[in-house]
């Protein structure tokens, strides 16, 4: 049965330096939260603290109102799946999945029958008799996931389990995780450095920067309404227009641009995602400028433009793409305009 997970002021120091400096985060019962951040920011350390594989220097871990902080790993009701499946090579796929049930005292026949059900959930019922060495990477991770679910954890912890898989296999694992939510409704805390993965699988994405949760929100809100320049930049935002808010509009070298939401008067930076910016003729845009660079980005093109307010970018799809030196207009859709505080320090 799933339960909520609450991290309250978690601190973890290594060599005097605080890798985690007061992490507060709640994962609702049956929800999926992705912990997103650059490499080396302590994301995996958070999972280790929840699983009981490490001890916080301060703060508490709670699940369903129960304080887990001082409990041994096997008493926490959590299961952890990492990048490496760590299957037992001498056991069959079925017996790997049945292992936590056997440890819990189930008779062999009952454990294997229940394990077969979990293999069916992950679409590998026909591989029950195989050994791990004969499996592909994606199949191994499915077995590891089935084994974790067989332990009936209240909280499922995923430490970048899909990062080593090919893109197509990774997308299949994302779909599988969505299907499993409908079947068993685990509470999931997923660690990833992949923005697309976080958006694909999570209800809420929590951005971990400088040892703290900088913002936690649905992925779409994070991109269009970041809490700070640091969050915007980490999520790939490149458009920043310095200026000030005056009576419901942002005033800058681009002129006066109305804002869709109330924002306090004072200095602020206008951010608009490059994917939302449209190119038009010089006379028709909210800003005008000269194209300085055009860069392919898969099926799209990044167009960089010099404007009176500094460089701005737009991403365009197939079709006519302007060339360096062209004069263009940029449309900044009103519902995509957002103001964040100016960076300090």
Automatic annotation (TrEMBL):
Keywords: ATP-binding, Nucleotide-binding, Transport. GO terms for molecular function: ATP binding; ATP hydrolysis activity; transmembrane transporter activity. The keyword Membrane does not apply. SUPFAM superfamilies: MOP-like, P-loop containing nucleoside triphosphate hydrolases. GO terms for cellular component: ATP-binding cassette (ABC) transporter complex. Residues 5-235 form the ABC transporter domain. InterPro entries: AAA+_ATPase, ABC_SmlMolc_Importer, ABC_transporter-like_ATP-bd, Mo/tungstate-bd_C_term_dom, P-loop_NTPase, Transp-assoc_OB_typ2. It comes from the Bacteria. Residues 305-331 are annotated as: Disordered. The keyword Phosphoprotein does not apply. This is Putative spermidine/putrescine transport system ATP-binding protein. It comes from Geodermatophilus nigrescens. The lineage of its organism: Bacteria, Bacillati, Actinomycetota, Actinomycetes, Geodermatophilales.
């Amino acid at each position: 049965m799933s339960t909520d997970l609450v991290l309250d002021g978690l601190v973890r120091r290594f060599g005097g330096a605080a890798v985690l400096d007061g992490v507060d985060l709640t994962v609702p019962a049956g929800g999926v939260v992705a912990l997103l951040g650059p490499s080396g920011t302590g994301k995996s350390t958070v999972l280790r603290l929840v699983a009981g594989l490490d001890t916080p220097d301060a703060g508490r871990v709670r699940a369903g109102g129960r304080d887990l902080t001082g409990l041994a790993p096997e008493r926490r009701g959590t299961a952890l799946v990492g990048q490496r499946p760590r299957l037992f090579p001498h056991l069959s796929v079925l017996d790997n999945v049945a292992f936590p049930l056997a440890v819990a005292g189930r008779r062999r026949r009952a454990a294997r029958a229940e394990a077969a059900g979990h293999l069916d959930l992950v679409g590998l019922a026909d591989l029950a008799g195989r050994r791990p060495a004969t499996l592909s990477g994606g199949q191994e991770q499915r077995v590891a996931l089935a084994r974790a679910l067989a332990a009936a954890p209240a909280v499922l912890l995923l430490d970048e389990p899909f990062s080593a898989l090919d893109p197509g296999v990774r997308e299949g694992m994302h779909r599988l995780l969505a299907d499993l939510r409908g079947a068993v409704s685990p509470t999931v805390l997923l660690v990833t450095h992949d923005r697309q993965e976080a958006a694909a699988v999570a209800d809420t994405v929590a951005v971990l920067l400088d040892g703290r949760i900088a913002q936690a929100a649905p992925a779409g809100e994070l991109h269009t309404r970041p809490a700070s320049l640091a969050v915007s930049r980490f999520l790939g935002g490149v458009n920043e227009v310095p200026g000030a808010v005056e009576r419901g509009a942002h005033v800058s070298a681009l002129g006066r641009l109305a804002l869709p939401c109330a924002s306090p008067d004072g200095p602020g930076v206008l951010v608009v995602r490059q994917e939302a910016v449209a190119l038009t003729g010089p006379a028709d845009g909210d800003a005008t400028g000269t194209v300085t660079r055009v860069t392919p980005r898969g099926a799209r093109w990044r167009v960089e433009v010099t404007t009176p307010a500094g460089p701005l970018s737009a991403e365009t799809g197939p079709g006519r793409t302007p060339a360096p030196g062209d004069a263009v207009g940029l449309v900044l859709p009103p519902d995509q305009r957002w103001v964040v505080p100016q960076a300090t320090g």
